[in-house]
């Protein structure tokens, strides 16, 4: 399996995490079905790209060669990417080739970008013009088949990028000249230059998986032109009729109806999200939607996913191992139907009679582990989150109760002193709240509604949400509370 990976010049956003998570689940499923040593997963690193060059050039101090600056930028970004996707519970692919290592490989017989371009020229599918090498699109009758685009549509799309050296508007760049002062480059039969974007994936998949392989994946935005061009290059260079047997494309992650993207600026990085949520919650939230559908990314969805995981881990048995149950396997084997997988997990959870005990509780634990959810990581977050909530609550109550006392309310408030700050402890906070609730109920009973509303507002200002209910037997009003998030 080959999946187009990140262009490494900045933090990845949560949209970029979608293909990483989706194809990680597929990788786990394939290893389970066929055996670990029969699955090879390649996800490339695009470390030659004009956005990288621009970023590196901007920060270049001239104290070292520009290529060293570029390498430092891509190394740092790659490290960040690894930390992020590790935290999302994703396994590392079998190979993560860097494009720059596949431009020119001196070892005899080692496939690289320059060799593929030479083959394409020799076979009459590419031509040299003005220091560039271009793929000759009209030389390939099947071009446009993957994207199901007509020639007219492709010509219209290509008009944006007209260049005088192109024979046909749809022709695309395989190689381009580099300015040795400002851009990275390699010596080639066509002069000092660098590859176009698409050729790297033909070279890396060809070198690591062969001329034809099973599955090719990526985001839906890559279908055209990137994957169409990969197919054209690989099939025309190798003389094959197909590059991959199956193509899988994930839908977009959307924010308010638009694709999350760097250029639109409507993105949130994985790193920022990991400040507030454990990777497991982000992962579950991603898998609730089928991979081909768009996802509407919301804070509410994350809250719900955190609630679901909390519930599952509370009920799941404490065991260590991992396994995929037949019902989940069937769901995933059906075009990676993760919503069905979720339904099966809920069903499993609903069959648990005694928390953490019995076959279903064990199954739930094993399946969650199989799917990359890490109980210890999730529970560490839960603990930290609870502690933070409590300290926020204490701070609010210190403020709220001080104001309350100033208004001369008779309720006794116990305060403990820490770091010179007057703050009630967690248990005392609860007492304060319960005393206030009792005072409010008393005020209501006495029909002093102004006072009871005032106390309610006071509690709301402390961040406490009240839930009123009538006891069905006695008709008495009872009030429960929780910390509003
Ligand atoms: N909003 C999104 N939803 C789902 N997948 C996405 C989204 N944005 C990018 N991807 C996918 O992320 C992977 C990495 O792509 P890449 O590093 O080129 O990001 P990008 O396309 O440059 O991002 P952007 O669109 O923000 O500029 C690709 O498979 C791409 O299809
Ligand atoms: Zn690619």
Mean pLDDT: 90
State the CATH topology of the largest domain.
Answer: Rossmann fold
- The structure class reads alpha/beta
Number of domains: 2
What bound compounds does this protein have? adenosine-5'-triphosphate, zinc ion
Question: What is the straight-line distance between the termini?
Answer: 42 Å
**CATH class label of the largest domain:** Alpha Beta
CATH architectural group of the largest domain: 3-Layer(aba) Sandwich
The major beta sheet can be summarized as: 4 strands, parallel
Number of strands: 15
- The helix content, as a percent range, equals 40-55%
Classified in CATH, the superfamily of the largest domain is HUPs
Order of strands in the sheet with the most strands? 2-1-7-8
Number of helices: 16
- Please state roughly what percent of the residues sit in beta strands, choosing from under 5%, 5-15%, 15-25%, 25-35%, 35-45% or over 45%: 5-15%
